[in-house]
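Step 1: inspect the first sequence and its tokens.
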Amino acid sequence: MSQAIADLFRRITCGVYVIGVAVGERHNAFTAAWVMPVSFDPLLLALSINPRHSSYELLKQGKSFSVNVLSREQMDVARHFGSPASTDKLASVAWRRGRDGTPLLVDALAWFECELTGECPAGDHVLALGRVINGALLKPDAAPLTYRETGDMDGAAAIFPDRFS
């Protein structure tokens, strides 16, 4: 474990998001920090996901995902969706189904709906590319929650290597 390397990587500016996936009546949502815009034309977002994550198969089968942007006041929401998938995390949160059934959080700062257009291996993760098909800014005056502000909530310091290779 390297706290120094974890601290270094927390200096890369990234937000905290709740990613929603669905297939039919099955749905799930999880916290992610590795989301970024990658193209203006067409509008594309990239999501980094561990292929061993319980929601990865829902993402592949449903061929879509939502990106719910959290505000600084939603640290509890980040913690809730970052916990292990032992229960239906959406049961205690206000949400609605997007166009493809993906969960859209009612209290998010903003949300995007994306159709999966491809993926690329990226080390121990997969980069999923999504074409943005819809979106809404719900709280224009709210500041987004950043990954650095979450500290080691996700336990990533234990995963980083001790040194650079």
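Step 2: inspect the second sequence and its tokens, then contrast the two.
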Amino acid sequence: MLNPEFLLTSLVVVLLPGAGVLYTLAIGLGRGFIPSVAAAFGCTLGILPSALAGIIGLAAILHTSALAFQIIKYLGVLYLLYMAWNITRSGGALDLKENAAPSPLWRIAVNGILINILNPKLSLFFLAFLPQFIEAGSNSPTLDMVLLAAIFMAMTFVVFVGYGAFASLARDFVISRPAVMTWMKRSFAAAFGFLGLRLALAER
């Protein structure tokens, strides 16, 4: 059932910079490695509802119901814009201070969950993506898709932890350079704003 095409395609999708990657990098830079693991865990867990929706066909509702799609889409847009604001404010996700006030790990994880839950495109992705890699003669296609979704989520967690580790290693370098800190904040905020705009313009 598992084939190199699935693993390679999944790896490319996971590596592509999106809201989850940006959030994990921001937490790694602003808070350190352990909080970035919490961010990676939250982003990975946030995939679960979309994966299940795609597997049992609920994503089709988003595809056929303009109202349902628009509601979830604009909730996602608002949350991405909130993340852009949160990046720039004092004490926010990218508060690059040597002794920055610690954020509870559960709160970091919940933010990561919300980033992926409030993206209707994710469930449509699973609806279109997973069936391509199910063998035609499979006796349990639903179970096969559950396994593929679990592998995709595991890859997401491992890659995101890697992103967080890289960001946390660069933290001291960034903290010691105020100009770089300012540039990083603006860049991350602009990236979240761009993702929000792109989602707002997305069609079903």
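Step 3: confirm your contrast with the notes below.
Residues 33-87+101-200 form one domain. The chain has a mean pLDDT of 79.
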